[in-house]
């Protein structure tokens, strides 16, 4: 076991990203798909923080990107859940196949 | 093997294991709880890196906000005790394959790459420094994105209300 460093954090964030991608591909329920998207966004945040900590510690830009991503993720989750609840009201289910009806 | 290393590996294991469980469990409520532990693990990693402000924001917004929102939407849209439909085997296999291949590709690229470090003096990510740069208007200040995000949050707030509003009955 080595001293944890940049590569360890990048490994965690890569693994987290692809776990999220796997969940996004396999899940058919809109709420669980939203959870997978949250995992992907968190892996990106971890990446920004890792680079800021270990490579460009003289600036705080990665930190600000993380703050803005968190704010936008919160807005995105709120809008997505409003859409999901609206869909449930009209279809009594939140399966992703039903969202095709939203086109018309 | 110092205590700090052990804590780091512990946090990494908590994060990754609960992430895997969150995308594979068939009980949707448990998936939300595993997501909660995953996000707490990530907040712990931020604490471990001594980015306390980001860790606090992570806990307040993700753990306290988004997960609670997800749990409420599960309550509103799911029958209690229902299992999620099992995904088709073919789709599961191909998704796992795609995720694994992508991960292998990225790890291969990472292992062959060396990153260039900056030589400048470190800036401590204290709340005072963050606050000064966040609303600063000089070069490197983030006041414009700050304002744009506040408009975006207002738009999202109004949009949520409009979308989720119950439409009035047509008849008088």
Explain what you see.
The complex is a heterodimer of chains A (104) and B (172). With 104 residues, chain A is an all-alpha fold. Chain A contains 3 helices and no strands. In chain A, helix 1 runs antiparallel to helix 2 and helix 2 (30-54) runs antiparallel to helix 3 (61-91). The radius of gyration of chain A is 17 Å and the shape is elongated. Chain A starts with 5 loop residues before the first helix and ends in a 13-residue tail after the last helix. Chain B has 6 helices and no strands. Chain B has helices at 3-24, 28-48, 52-77, 89-112, 127-134, 143-164. Chain B is extended. In chain B, 21% of the residues are buried. The mean pLDDT of chain B is 89. Chains A and B meet through helix 1, helix 2 and helix 3 of A and helix 1, helix 2, helix 3, helix 4 and helix 5 of B.
Features:
heterodimer; A: 74% helix; 0% strand; B: 172 residues; mainly alpha; 6 helices
> Which percent range fits the helix content of chain B?
over 70%
* Series of H and E elements of chain A: HHH
Number of helices of chain A: 3
Contiguous runs where pLDDT drops below 50 for at least 5 residues of chain B:
none
Coarse morphology of chain B: extended
Strand content of chain B: under 5%
What is the element string of chain B, with H for helices and E for strands? HHHHHH
Q: Which blocks of ≥5 consecutive residues of chain A have pLDDT under 50?
A: none
Largest sheet of chain A: none
Radius of gyration from the alpha-carbon trace of chain B, in angstroms: 22 Å
Percent of residues in helices of chain A comes to over 70%
Structural class of chain B: mainly alpha
Regarding quaternary structure, what we see is heterodimer
What is the approximate shape of chain A?
elongated
Number of helices of chain B: 6
Beta-strand residue fraction of chain A: under 5%
Give the overall average pLDDT of chain A: 89
Query: Count of DSSP E strands of chain A?
Result: 0
């Amino acid at each position: 076991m080595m001293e944890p460093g940049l590569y360890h954090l990048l490994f965690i964030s890569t693994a987290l990203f692809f776990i999220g991608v796997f969940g996004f591909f396999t899940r058919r329920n809109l709420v669980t798909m939203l959870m997978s998207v949250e995992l992907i966004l968190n892996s990106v945040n971890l990446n920004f923080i890792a680079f800021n900590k270990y490579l460009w510690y003289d600036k705080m830009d990665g930190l600000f990107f993380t703050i803005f991503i968190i704010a936008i993720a919160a807005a995105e989750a709120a809008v997505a859940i409003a859409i999901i609840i609206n869909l449930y009201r009209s279809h009594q289910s939140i399966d992703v196949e039903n969202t095709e009806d939203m086109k018309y | 093997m110092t205590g700090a290393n052990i804590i780091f590996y512990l946090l990494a294991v908590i994060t990754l294991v609960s992430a895997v469980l969150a995308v594979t469990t068939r009980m949707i409520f448990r998936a939300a709880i595993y997501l909660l532990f995953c996000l707490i693990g990530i907040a712990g990693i931020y604490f471990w890196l001594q980015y306390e402000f980001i860790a606090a924001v992570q806990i307040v917004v993700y753990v306290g906000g988004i997960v609670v929102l997800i749990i409420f939407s599960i309550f509103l849209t799911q029958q209690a005790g229902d299992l999620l439909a099992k995904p088709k085997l073919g789709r599961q296999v191909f998704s796992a394959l795609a995720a694994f291949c992508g991960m292998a590709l990225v790890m291969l690229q990472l292992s062959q790459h060396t990153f260039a470090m900056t030589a400048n003096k470190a800036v401590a990510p204290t709340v005072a420094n963050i606050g000064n740069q966040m609303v600063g208007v000089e070069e490197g200040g983030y006041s414009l994105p700050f304002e744009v995000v506040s408009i975006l949050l207002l738009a999202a707030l109004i949009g949520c209300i409009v979308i989720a509003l119950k439409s009035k009955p047509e008849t008088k």
